[in-house]
Amino acid sequence: MAPQDVPERRLIRSTTGTCPVCHQTVPATVVITGGHVDLEKNCREHGVTAQRLSNHPWYWEGLDDYYFSVMREPYPQRDFLVRMTEQCNLDCPICLAKANTEGTPDLDLDGLEELLRQRRGIKIDLMSAEPTVRADLEDWIRKVKRSGNIAALHTNGLKLADPAYVSRLKRAGVDEVFLQFDGFDDDAHMALRGRPLLETRLKALENLRTYGIATSLIVVIARGLNEAEVGKTYRFALRPENDHIREVFFLGLRLLGSARDALNLGDGGIREQQLMPDELLDLLCEQEPSIRREDVYEFNRIYFALLSAFRVRKCLYIQHYMVTREPDGTSRPISGYFDMARLGEIATEYGRRMDQHPNLARALLVAELAREGLRKEPLALAASLFRLERLLKVGMNLKLVPRRFLLLGFITACDPYNFDSQVAAHCGKGELSVDGGFTESGGVANVEREARFEASNRRPGALHAR
To answer: Nearest-CA neighbor of 365 among 441, 288, 310?
Structure first.
């Protein structure tokens, strides 16, 4: 059982953040207060602001402490967001990119070529605002594949409703597609995206299945709008015919781009709709009782240990879990195969050994996990788990994730409210863009871009590309 939450005020960690008003760097603390965990920032001019991180202090304090004990340095970046264009064929009211607004020119292919010359063995996320509006997208995919790297496409799915277009992407060599999919409620789509999209997105998913393209669903959830879609989308992804869906990411609404612009124009209600990953986990646990927070806690500790052992960057704010698909469309959580308490002990031992013998700690971690994998229940997954572990070394290409697994993520995007410089230093995504250049941390790029948006004072809404 989880430790009891104690409604006391206690410091977890001191850091720095960004004032959500003036965008200046300010002192910040992660604190337990009133039975929950907040990131508090103190600006001399604008006072104290708070971002709720968790309603479960035992969970957040334990993960925060363990994460920073094993992720001791920012490891080399292996995943880069390449912002190909700031144009889009939608005008989403919540657009993180504030698309069709700033008049930013498209990124030249030379920028990607330079990145590929500098780095090897990486994932390239072709995205933002909508990369499919670029006529040369297939050339970019081929360029990434010829360099021996992973080509990932992030899209709203409008053009993927055309099977001929999906066929061309497949021939170009795309490895995986991250598809915006905000559930099954078109009223929610109207609020989030400005138009009903369910039919189009279901057609896009059908085409991705037809051409065997590994897919991740990016499900934006806003408080009071579409929370019920968490469980519905999870169960949809488990259907046997949807085994091309290897991952579901639940993304809480954040105040970036057009959403933050709406707040600045007086829509105070949108501030209440934002969600952090811990709240998304609450929703899934409520809607899918087989998933327990205590198990997710131990899973993330052993996951952070493996990331540390293989020197993989990953944000503390992004947390994961994993289930297996059953033939009848149900699932079995990873806790059904492993003794999660034992995995927690292995993670604790790894952290302790890292203090004096880091190389030994890494070797023993792998050996002890291999031993656990030979027990009766996990033995049935041994080959698939070995493949998954190997992806930590060579890059998490969803195309290579065994179809039996469904990966789950509870994620956020850094904005001026939740930005924590110590967390952002380990951001698992670098970024290349026209307006921001090259940065090792997508979280840093987000808050810097937001400051530029506000300085420009341009309003979203004029659709420049269709």
So the answer is: 310
